[in-house]
Design brief:
This protein is mostly helical and about 60 residues long. It contains two helices and no strands. The chain has one domain.
Length: about 60
Amino acid sequence: MTEIIYGVQEKTRGWLTHDDLALLLQGQRDIARIRANNAHIAMQTHLQSTLLRLIDMALLG
């Protein structure tokens, strides 16, 4: 988020072009998508692990 604020400030100062700002925003969107995907993968892995433990307990118990 701070990168976006920084980018808007730099655009206002004339240091970044509209295209530069658009690239910055696209990069931030891509990073957010990757983080969400990583969180989803971690949750799936945790659920699979829990399910395997439950199956193991059911078979052994």
